[in-house]
Amino acid sequence: MSNALSIGKSALNAAQIGIATVGHNIANASTPGYNRQVMVQAAAQAQNFGYGYVGQGTNVVGIQRVFNETLSKQVINATATSNASNAYYSNISQVNGLLSDSTAGLNPVITSFFSAVSAAAANPSDTATRQTLISSAQSMVNRFNAVNTQLDQMRESINTQITSSVDAINSYSAQIATLNDTITKAVNSTGNMPNDLMDQRDQLVAKLSEQIKTTVIKQDDGSYNVFAGTGMPLVVGTQQYSLYTRASDTDPTRVEVAYGNAASPKILSTDTISGGTLGGVLQFRSETLDAVQNQVGQLAITLATQFNAQQTQGYDLNSVVGTDFFSVGSPTAISSAYNTDPTKTASASIVDASLLTSSDYTVKYNSGQYTITRLNDKSIMWQGTSLPATVDGMQIDVNTSTPAEGDSYLIKPTQYAAGKLALAFTNVDQLALAGSATTGPSDNENGLKLAALQNGANVRVAGSSTNRTYAQAFAQMVSAVGTKTNELSITSKADATALENATSAMQSESGVNLDEEATDLLRYQQAYQAAGKMMQIASQLFEVLLQLGQ
Q: Is-above-0.85 flag for pTM?
């Protein structure tokens, strides 16, 4: 009878554990990252009684979580890809809205300005038309300033997004390292996997992949080694490695991502960081925001510089040679923070606006010579032992005859130009519409030339062998941003669908199905009742034997 009682007890114990496991699944059906658990049973070692082997009941081998590593990796990859495209799309949509707005964009005010120039040229002696020209010019300047301000605000928003994302990455990786330690200790001490802790760790990995592309390599001791981007270690066993944010070496207003020694982490290139919100935001800044702000600045410089050049060829109402109508800021030159002598600076000036590009440039001194590189296509534009040098309509120089090895400078010809644009005067008499100092007030020779600038091939556009008009250059910029926005709209939706499908596939295997759990609950309940009945019968039989013995 003791054998029957023992078998019944093992069955009762298994049923109890099964009910507890199912109950745990039901309780966590809505818990993020929870993977359902199942009880694993095995028959107890049978005993040989001579006439054959008699079973000894059941053993509970363990509680196993249903987790598919392949599906999990698919979800992690899809999450990083989806968040990257979504972050890029949400940011570029703002730029697209800014540029394409028919009332807030640049094209209407440029058109209005040249219409006023034409009107003034048609009636050069009329003060009212001259005043209208001044007002239209001021409106155009204000619009350039406003667009640049909004782009600067987007740039500040990107800085905030980068900082927030890096903070989240460091928090998740620190928690993963802590769980690695706890899980490893639990496995070593009991030999069993702490399923709920492992779920928590996998959920943290999933959250980490929302911020950056994440790769996980499982170790023999149950710990995870986690790598980000193109292979930067974030977690190795119980050791966590942080990302940092720091100002760019050549632009203190630009937040960059750095890695390495906490005292002096090295700035990472955009190519090193991919996927997730952080990757998407950095890609948007480097591919779209920088390019658009530079192009807007290029348009402002080119229009203003060429208008000034023609204005100074004419004569005003007082028969005085015209002066610059627009105030145009000089290109910005920034010394690297790593330069040996910070007093050694670079400078740049525009010599031919029609040759100006929307790219930034670097000037580096190595092995006895300077190298000037155009950054948008990585082209080496000039090399020599001494400066100045003229590159793409711009003269570049340094203020030293004794450069140090490794000295580096960043030249930004156009990024800040739209924000610096202003009117140099507002006196209507100073508009130089006349072509000669001796002709009468009806002389409009120079006014007609100023108006003709609207349709001239004045702006250099990347990828084109011929220059474009101001309107064409702006339209091409708007079109490029619009095309990229539409592309990302489609891509982000496709990536979101891929993530949804990957998540559904994993949930169908690892998620809690309440209908299935209810069925299992009834099954274990019946097993529990049957085991109890078995023990009751065994007990009754034992009582009969005792009575027979008396």
A: yes
